[in-house]
Recover the amino acids of this structure.
């Protein structure tokens, strides 16, 4: 299985770092007591909003991924204290220091995996096609770094351009530009389960005439240049349209007279189809799915019941069979507006999506999910495409040799 969106680093945020890395403290100068406080806040929030039970545990770890049959994981780098920056007013432009914290988190992920697996027998950091082949051929778990939240990238277009290039060099293969709150990069769709779209828009105002800002445009241009996938998840329709239109223009400029050149793929790493015409804005419209499919991209189906359940019909009352049937409805809807070649899995486990689908509370349970999905889609090619093939094709398209 390939999971296009999974928060492996989240449990590391709940651990206070043992020592401050000098290179990072140089910029922000954050005292160690504040790091310990932040770790405590993350753990408390996880107990309330992420763990299946208050005394439960994290959903994602290396052993669980192995048991769940996950061979490639898009590992999401995200700093909640950058997005919800209490030093700033709502909707403020990003601070430059967010980027340094992002790099520190990337380093902590790699350090943690080396601690668990010092001889690299169980994992590989995927930065090239060769690394991907190693993960698939040796049954190691391949970790692909990705970033959720364009606010991490910098406070000016010049910073964003420079940082995207550096992240690409470090192995980051996609960036989700929008997220939960407006931070002057790209307008976002509501995605907080206890708030309706209408209530969210009333409380968290965003400019109606904006899709991408100058920071968002700079990010898309730099990502296109450095073969970093743009992730449309969390974007409002206007931001999605402006992003895809910009990529169309960039592809035309880069293609020149070589009309046979394939368009740059684009993804929605963790989403669902809008089964109700007036459904929540987070879920993807048929037009968006078609444009993703036209670019050879993929939609990773999220495992959050908040997004999946809306509009699903005639499903079992509970259990894994219920989850499989709901996901099958989304698969069929996506394939009808695109093709079966643009459907994948993007669980968003440990992404504070409580409740997750019935039957999958932790990564270790993904193996049973995969077996059930294969039974639901008896054409082996379809199941293979959903579980791994489509995502691997897109990753290979942007990984360097």
């Amino acid at each position: 299985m390939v999971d296009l969106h999974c928060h492996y680093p989240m449990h590391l945020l709940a651990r206070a770092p043992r020592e401050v890395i000098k290179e990072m403290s140089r910029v922000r100068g954050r005292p160690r007591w504040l790091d310990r406080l932040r770790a405590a806040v993350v753990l408390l929030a996880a107990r309330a909003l992420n763990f299946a039970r208050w005394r439960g545990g994290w959903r994602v770890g290396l052993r669980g991924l192995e048991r769940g049959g996950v061979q490639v994981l898009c590992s999401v780098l995200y700093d909640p204290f950058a997005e919800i920056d209490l030093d700033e007013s709502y909707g403020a432009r990003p601070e430059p220091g967010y980027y340094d914290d992002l790099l520190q988190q990337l380093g902590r992920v790699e350090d943690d995996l080396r601690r668990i697996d010092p001889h690299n027998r169980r994992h590989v950091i995927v930065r090239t096609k060769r690394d991907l082949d190693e993960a698939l051929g040796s049954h190691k778990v391949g970790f692909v770094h990705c970033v959720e939240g364009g606010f991490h990238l910098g406070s000016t277009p010049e910073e964003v351009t420079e940082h995207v290039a550096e992240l690409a060099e470090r192995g980051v293969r996609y960036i989700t530009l929008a997220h939960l709150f407006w931070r002057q990069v790209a307008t976002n769709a509501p995605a907080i389960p206890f708030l309706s779209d209408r209530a969210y828009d009333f409380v968290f105002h965003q400019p109606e005439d904006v899709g991408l800002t100058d920071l968002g445009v700079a990010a898309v241009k730099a990502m296109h240049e450095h073969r970093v996938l743009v992730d449309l998840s969390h974007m409002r329709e206007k931001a999605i349209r402006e992003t895809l239109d910009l990529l169309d223009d960039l592809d035309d400029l880069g293609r020149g007279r070589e009309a046979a050149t394939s368009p740059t793929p684009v993804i929605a790493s963790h989403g669902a189809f809008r089964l109700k015409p007036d459904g929540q804005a987070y879920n993807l419209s048929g037009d968006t799915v078609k444009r993703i499919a036209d670019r050879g991209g993929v939609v990773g189906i999220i495992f959050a019941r908040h997004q999946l359940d809306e509009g699903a019909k005639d499903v079992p009352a509970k259990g894994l069979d219920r989850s499989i049937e709901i996901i099958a409805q989304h698969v069929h809807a996506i394939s009808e507006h695109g093709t079966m070649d643009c459907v994948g899995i993007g669980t968003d486990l440990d992404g504070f999506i409580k409740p997750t689908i019935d039957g999958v509370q932790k990564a270790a349970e993904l193996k049973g999910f995969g077996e059930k999905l294969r039974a639901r889609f008896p054409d082996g090619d379809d199941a293979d495409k959903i579980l791994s093939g489509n995502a691997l094709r897109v990753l290979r398209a942007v990984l360097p040799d």
Remarks:
- The chain has one domain: 2-398.
- The chain is about 45% helix and 10% strand.
- The chain has a mean pLDDT of 93.
